[in-house]
Amino acid sequence: LGAEVVSGDLDDQASLERSLAERDHVQDPDGRFRINNVFCHADSWRSALPRLVEDGDAVLMDLRSFSETNTGCIHELRHLAQNVPFDRCLLTVDETTDEPFLERTLKEAWEQLSPGSANHSQSPGEATVHRFESGTVAFRRLLRRLCDAGAR
After folding, report:
1. Which pTM does this prediction carry?
2. Is pLDDT at 62 greater than 70 in this prediction?
3. What are the residues facing 9 on neighbouring strands?
4. Are 84 and 53 in contact (CB under 8 A)?
């Protein structure tokens, strides 16, 4: 999996397009891919989101500490449900995640899907949720699930 994030400081559509064009996709001699960071302003991340997830092999969304106060995450979950097949997504949770609220958010997102949505024929229960744990074995399990999502 190559990194599918953008480098640069995004504050308008032109800088987003420029940053997307400047991403480093070439594999290094050691077999790794470079990490390209994204730095969005509060008013630009919503326009960057669709471009980032459409170009990516997989989407890893960290929902640790997720709750009703995370309006940006709610927006992102709705966007993913509408536009990205959930078999390409991995939602990471832990004991700090308000899982009943996450389930309600996904259910509500599904109820609002258009017929052409990537997930229209699926149910919200098909979203891949991974319980985050610390340690090497748990990290390898997470990495395997992320690779599986990117291979689809």
Report:
1. 0.80
2. yes
3. 39
4. yes
